[in-house]
Amino acid sequence: MDDLNQRIDELEIRYTHQEQVIDELNAVVTDCSQRIAWLEREVNRYREMLQSLAPGLPESPDE
């Protein structure tokens, strides 16, 4: 029975650790998502600025 209790204790410790890691990873993913959204807004803002400066030029060098 002691072996079973020890295994249960180890599983509880692992579960707690995994839960903490998941919370930390979630915070990182949320931060990255916010940064990506900000960068997308910045790219769009710069694109609009460039278009207003030179409306006759193509949008990309390939055009």
Instruction: Please provide the count of β strands.
Output: 0
- Measured as a percent range, the helix fraction is over 70%
Rounded to an integer, what's the Rg over CA atoms? Answer: 25 Å
Distance between the termini: 74 Å
Q: Give the percentage of residues in beta strands.
A: under 5%
Description:
The protein is built from one helix and no strands. It has 63 residues and is an all-alpha fold. It has a domain of 27 residues. The mean pLDDT is 92.
Task: Describe the structure concisely.
With 63 residues, the protein is mostly helical.
Element layout with pairings:
Elements: H1 2-53
Offer a few descriptive terms.
1 helix, mainly alpha, rod-shaped, 63 residues, single chain
